[in-house]
Automatic annotation (TrEMBL):
PANTHER family: L,D-TRANSPEPTIDASE (PTHR30582), L,D-TRANSPEPTIDASE ERFK_SRFK-RELATED (PTHR30582:SF24). This is Mll5027 protein. It comes from the Bacteria. Belongs to the YkuD family.
């Protein structure tokens, strides 16, 4: 207990005690006023005298539930890494000057808006985008080049199988249009100048080959354009990434 200052007598019962930190009458009145305001505002107090706010913790239908955080994938990183030069199966794939590719056509993770099951490949011809649907509400999106008018295919099908550095065989009708391709009527071996690029995924519908492919291309500048003979083409680095994620019989939707 503190000693009283000299010259002061102990208080009698009922007298007020003065301390070094007096609590002014104004402060007491202010505190009482605050409690009165809380009571007027619809608050209640707990048994210990502390105010308790009566908050409504319900979630209304106008507030959408929070979606899971977007996934993290070591292969979806900065463009200078994703489109760097690489060696694949003995072929030296050149670097892609990604600054010349529109940002929306570069590989990235986005919120899935397709409504399709995970593992489905969705090609939006109008958008020039390919989506690989992921679990948890995400999709990996790649920019693509598509077929010219009159050469496009759409529908639901499956990936029957895939090939690394595939052989390309021009169909007879293409050779008729471009006689110089006759030299490849027996098939052009896989390589850096092969139109199918580093990988090809073969689209079958009801067990039959549609003749359409999802494949790579050395012509990175064609991404976002409609200039192929109907197939869906990706940058070689992107088709290598997509191919690594696809298993047999993946559903394909082209719309």
């Amino acid at each position: 207990m503190r000693e009283l200052p000299q010259g002061l007598t102990p208080p009698r019962n009922g007298d007020a005690i003065e301390t070094d930190h007096p609590l002014s009458r104004r402060a007491v009145l202010s505190g009482a006023g605050a409690l009165a305001l809380l009571s007027a505002a619809g608050c209640s107090t707990s048994g210990g005298g502390m105010p308790v706010l009566e908050l409504d913790n319900t979630v209304t239908g106008s507030v959408p539930p929070m979606r899971p955080a977007i996934s993290v994938d070591k292969n979806i990183t900065s463009p200078d890494l994703m489109y760097a030069a690489l060696t694949d199966n003995g072929f030296n794939v050149p670097e892609v000057p990604y600054l010349k590719v529109k940002p929306e056509f570069r590989r990235q993770i986005v919120v899935d808006t397709t409504g399709e099951a995970p593992g489905t490949i969705v090609v939006h011809l109008k958008e020039r985008m390919l989506y690989l649907v992921q679990p948890g509400g995400d999709a990996i999106r790649y920019g693509v080049g598509i077929g010219k008018d009159g050469f496009r295919w759409s529908g639901r099908a499956n990936i029957q199988y895939g090939r690394e550095w595939p052989t390309w065989t021009p169909p007879p009708e293409m050779i008729q249009r471009k006689p110089e391709l006759v030299k490849w009527q027996g098939g052009q071996p896989g390589g850096l100048t092969n139109p199918l690029g580093a990988r090809a995924l073969y689209i079958y519908q009801d067990g039959k080959d549609t003749g359409y492919r999802i494949h790579g291309s050395p012509e990175w500048w064609s991404i976002g354009q409609a200039m192929s003979s109907g197939c869906v083409r990706l940058i070689n680095q992107d088709i290598i990434d997509l191919y690594s994620r696809v298993s047999k019989k993946n559903p394909v939707v082209v719309m």
